[in-house]
Design brief:
A six-stranded parallel β-sheet has the order 3-2-1-4-5-6, with helices on both faces. It has a three-stranded mixed β-sheet with strand order 7-8-9. Helices cover 55% and strands 12% of the residues. It is an alpha/beta fold. Strand 2, helix 3 and strand 3 form a beta-alpha-beta unit.
């Protein structure tokens, strides 16, 4: 006959979270809300204070955060930061226990993810690349799309964690596949924002009620998640960062380079990549990517 201990659910894995930025902070908090124990490390004290206020544990170093963790999740800006926190005597691989599952949710190059998985395997650490789409709002609302690369067994083990963070969760293939799909995602998003921005300027210069126009466009074939999420940014010229131009510039570099490697032509993507780079060069890199509207306004002779 079973005892209460026999029927108890398995203990939740302990989580180390590295990188508590615009996305990382709300995502780690959603794991806390789901009942996970989260120990976090980042460079900004105010972010550590926020984690502590939400019920998490603050670590003083990467080593301290990961040494007793079952799962390590990283969410940092780009490949150089992933390499900085993963490698070296103070890095994750030097201090994580064999058998630890390392889930990198940053948006980086597919090659960086493949190399990380190979190097981690030598240390007995399992790896998934699991970048996300949905922006800050999706992170806060736990409705992110999560595209994953890695082994099926590791994906299955991580699925309950992913379900606390997102709604659309798909294993896309072997290591690096999640990053490849994320690159395609960023291509689509950038082109979509650019098209919306051009439409906004066209509508305003034509004297149309912009709010009414965007409402009706959103209900037809021109509707998209981008238009729904960014409509108020366009209407209010509110470009506080949910996803910064600087980061989208980095992502357009990833997709452009990856496409060149596999021989895929991206004619429209290449133009939008240059428009993103131009906006960044004009000092708008810290703004939300909906600020592509500002670039269209400049080209159209509007006061910005």
């Amino acid at each position: 006959m079973s005892t209460p201990a026999d029927s108890a659910p398995p203990a939740r894995p302990t989580i180390a979270w590295i990188g508590l930025g615009i996305m990382g902070s709300p995502m780690s908090e959603n794991l806390l809300k789901a009942g996970y124990q989260v120990t976090g490390y980042t460079l900004e004290q105010e972010k550590l204070d926020r984690l502590a206020a939400a019920g998490g544990t603050v670590a003083g170093s990467i080593a301290e955060a990961v040494r007793d963790a079952d799962v390590v999740i990283t969410m940092v800006p780009a490949s150089p930061q992933v390499e900085a926190i993963a490698y070296g005597p103070e890095g994750i691989l030097a201090h994580a226990r064999p058998g630890t599952l390392l889930i990198d949710m940053s948006s980086i190059t597919p090659r960086t993810s493949v190399d990380l998985a190979k190097n981690a395997r030598d240390k007995g650490v399992r790896v998934l690349d699991a970048p996300v789409s949905g922006g800050e709002a999706g992170a806060v609302e736990a409705v992110l799309s999560i595209m994953v690369g890695g082994e099926q067994a590791d994906f299955d083990a991580a699925l309950p964690l992913f379900q606390a963070l997102g709604k659309t969760i798909v294993l896309c293939g072997p290591h690096g596949s999640g990053q490849t799909v994320k690159a395609a995602n960023q291509l689509i998003v950038a082109v979509n924002i650019q098209a919306c921005a051009e439409a906004v300027v066209f509508l305003e210069k034509s004297g149309v009620d912009l709010r009414a126009a965007l409402d009706v466009l959103g209900g037809g074939l021109a509707g998209s998640t981008v238009l729904a999420r960014k409509k108020d940014n366009f209407l209010d010229r509110d470009f506080r960062p949910g996803f910064r131009i600087d980061l989208h510039h980095k992502d357009m570099g990833i997709v452009t380079d990856a496409a060149r490697t596999v021989g895929a032509a991206l004619p429209v993507g290449a133009v939008v990549a240059q428009l993103v780079a131009s906006l960044r060069a004009q000092g708008d890199g810290g703004l939300d990517h909906s600020a592509l509207l500002r670039a269209v306004e400049r080209l159209s002779g509007s006061q910005v």
